[in-house]
Amino acid sequence: MRLHETQDVFNNAIKYRNDFISWWREHSLAGAIDVADSAAAVEVVGDNLGFKINCKRKMIIEDNTITKLPFRFGVCSQFRLAADKLETLAGAPEQCNLFAVEFSKTGRNNNLDSIANGPLRATHLAYQLSHPLRSLETGSIGPIGSLWVDAPSIISFEGLNVPVTELTLRLPLQQSLTGIHKQLKHIEEISIVLSPKFEGGLLSVAMIKGLKRINRTTNSQIGIAPTYEKVFMLINEALAQGLNIHELQEKMIEVGLGKFARL
């Protein structure tokens, strides 16, 4: 969708807004979009890269034809997007309360293997991905309240260079968390879902800088939960008691969880 540029910047901005509203109405999953109401909620602003959209309304959009966002976005309230062919987050809102990339109604998913170029500032970020994620680089320059990633696995945990209050990772094909403490920093709370058959070392999780606790991700009684969750509960106890990594390692071995007692 290309903007027909003229010498009249005002008319160009109006056309950019109208093109966006047409796209929004065509692909909205949040019910009918009233033209007058949406126009009042949308502002077009410009910078040295061109126009971008500010929007006060919540947007829930599915467009399975695009490989990238057809508009640039500035300040938005909530932006939830499903796009089977999406290859990049370029153009994502610079600032928002919630930004999410979700599975489409077709059951297929995007082509993303990177979440770079996401919002510069966001309270909540959520990504459902069908490809292994190359890194946790988000593009954010400010603190993140919650970051939720559902991907087969993460190749590198590097790149997350801002404080995160709560990090949730759903990684059913992840084989190793070795060295995660060297790559993740300033995480207060973490939740990790792994394969029930996961047998890698988990001591690195206990060494994440700033970590206060590991949150459980199931309601199962700990006795029937995946074995790695028993380790996470031991790590929580160690964090609360101020145990060092060697004391934690010894405790894991004592209770029969020695196969996880590796960095």
Brief write-up:
This protein is of the alpha/beta class. The chain contains six helices and ten strands, in the order ααββββββββαβαβαα.
Structure report:
By secondary structure, the protein is α/β, with parallel strands linked by helices. Helices cover 22% and strands 24% of the residues. It is built from six helices and ten strands. The protein has helices at residues 9-27, 35-41, 180-183, 203-206, 227-241, 245-254, and strands spanning 42-47, 50-55, 59-62, 73-82, 95-101, 121-128, 144-150, 164-170, 187-193, 213-214. Strands 1, 2, 3, 4, 5, 6, 7, 8, 9 and 10 form a ten-stranded mixed sheet that branches. Helix 5 (227-241) crosses helix 6 (245-254). The relative contact order is 0.07.
Please describe the structure with a list of short key phrases separated by commas or semicolons.
alpha/beta, 22% helix, 10-stranded mixed beta sheet, 263 residues
| Percent helix range | 10-25%
The number of distinct β-strands equals 10
- Major sheet: size, sense and barrel closure? 10 strands, mixed
Order of helices and strands: HHEEEEEEEEHEHEHH
Residue share in β-strands: 15-25%
Average predicted confidence as pLDDT: 91
- Enumerate the spans where pLDDT stays under 50 for 5 or more consecutive residues: none
The chain-level structural class is alpha/beta
Please report the number of helical segments.
6
What's the arrangement of secondary structure elements?
Elements: H1 9-27, H2 35-41, E1 42-47, E2 50-55, E3 59-62, E4 73-82, E5 95-101, E6 121-128, E7 144-150, E8 164-170, H3 180-183, E9 187-193, H4 203-206, E10 213-214, H5 227-241, H6 245-254
Parallel strand pairs: 2-4, 3-4, 4-5, 5-6, 6-7, 7-8, 8-9, 9-10
Antiparallel strand pairs: 1-2
Helix pairs in contact: 5-6
